[in-house]
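Protein in question quoted for reference:
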Amino acid sequence: MANILAMIIPAIIGSVIMVNGVLMNSDDIIASAHVAANQMNIHQLDNALEIYYSDHGEYPGVVGGEALTELLVDDGYIRSQPLQPEKISYEPQSDNQNYKLGLID
């Protein structure tokens, strides 16, 4: 019994962290960090898309966040793929003269 408790207690304690006096699950903290990073990525992609439009007279004609980020990396508009490009939604609109960009839940 003591051996089982010795294995279970560190696992429970290891997944809970105190932040500003509040106990938080480490998975929740990681999920919140991913959401914040993805929101910043949207802002950066929006800026890169405006530069791309300035250079080409249209927005990229690809669909989806992974395709968009790959194109922007390959063409030098961003340095690296975002952490979770599959969480990004991108659709060109009106003959590539506008676009929808957002996060997928």
